[in-house]
Amino acid sequence: MLKSDFYFDLPEELIAQTPLKDRSSSRLMVLDKKTGSIEHKIFRDIVDLIEKGDCLVLNETKVLPARLIGARKDTGTRVEVLLLKRNENDTWETLVYPGKKARPGHIIEFGGGLLECEIVDVVDEGNRIVKFSYDGIFEEILDKLGEMPLPPYIKEKLEDKNRYQTVYAKNEGSAAAPTAGLHFTPELLQQIQDKGVNIARLTLHVGLGTFRPVKADNILEHKMHSEFYMIDKENAELINKTIRSGGNIITVGTTSTRTLESIADENGFVRECSGWTDIFIYPGYKFRIVDKLITNFHLPESTLIMLVSALAGRENVLNAYKEAVKEKYRFFSFGDAMFIK
């Protein structure tokens, strides 16, 4: 299967640069995965599309303000550090730009010295291991100095940090938002719950690899990045209860989908667990647990559009994307949504 099988032509002006004022007012394309039929709705109509007894699965990860702008302590050269993965003893795996200005032993300071890090090592793909030093609580300093690590296709400055967080974000650790969840408001979630829909929660910390392009022409040669997940006993049991009673499992986003498909057993049930997943889902994959999906519109030739195509069929998805371009839907992180039923 070729990367080019998932290409579509996307005019740059359809890439959403800013979030809408009302989260739930985005457009919603409804795609029937069996027939390929398409309907056009508003996201708040999702309440009518989810049935009593179904289970909506949310990813509670919270995005770190992981982009730090600092300077080499010895030269004053501007350096940007993006936090990727927390290790032990205040060390992190990071992406540093420009890399040539950040070699082992160099010290970078942020906020006039409020925070400093030393480059400790250079690892895979040129990433840097850094060790931070500071007085106080790291998370509070990061919240003060850090910026949201917006995707590279968003050029506009984000005025409100919270608009790149879901309203139910809880567990810090992501380098990117699970963007399908950005459309929900507390009121909308309450309406869904009041209808008799179960709402289950899990966590998958989204890594920077979510932005990395597929370079191999043959997609089977692509290596997925690894991401940490966890689900507790109460939420696992809620999902299993839904399945036993005949309800649909509806995941919010590709991150929730990848987590459930990673942890589901051969009978399609889940249990309390945590770990790392590098699951790659593409057409031909047999879903164990996920029935329906709420997702945004993804980049051409990305692993995300491949996952969506695995659930709904490649031809159906590419036809829906062609329709979305024609109808001028807004694409990517701050864009409109799709419900695959």
In short:
The chain is of the alpha/beta class and 341 residues long. The protein is 20% helix and 27% strand.
Task: Give a written overview of the molecule.
By secondary structure, the chain is α/β, with parallel strands linked by helices. The chain has two domains: 3-63 and 160-340, QueA-like (3-Layer(aba) Sandwich), CATH 3.40.1780.10; 67-145, QueA-like (Thrombin, subunit H). It has helices spanning 46-49, 138-145, 186-194, 233-244, 253-263, 303-312, 314-326; strands at 27-31, 38-42, 55-59, 61-63, 67-72, 78-86, 91-97, 107-110, 115-122, 128-134, 171-174, 198-204, 227-231, 249-252, 273-277, 292-296, 337-340. The strands form three sheets. Strands 2-1-17-16-14-3-12-13-15 form a nine-stranded mixed beta sheet. A six-stranded antiparallel beta barrel has the order 5-6-7-10-9-8. α6 packs across α7. The longest helix is centred in the last third of the chain and has 13 residues, at 314-326. The radius of gyration is 20 Å and the shape is globular. The mean pLDDT is 95.
List keywords for this structure.
QueA-like; alpha/beta; 341 residues; Thrombin, subunit H; 7 helices; 9-stranded mixed sheet; globular; 17 strands; 2 domains; 6-stranded antiparallel beta barrel
Topology:
Blueprint: E1 27-31, E2 38-42, H1 46-49, E3 55-59, E4 61-63, E5 67-72, E6 78-86, E7 91-97, E8 107-110, E9 115-122, E10 128-134, H2 138-145, E11 171-174, H3 186-194, E12 198-204, E13 227-231, H4 233-244, E14 249-252, H5 253-263, E15 273-277, E16 292-296, H6 303-312, H7 314-326, E17 337-340
Parallel strand pairs: 1-17, 3-12, 3-14, 4-11, 14-16
Antiparallel strand pairs: 1-2, 5-6, 5-8, 6-7, 7-10, 8-9, 9-10, 12-13, 13-15, 16-17
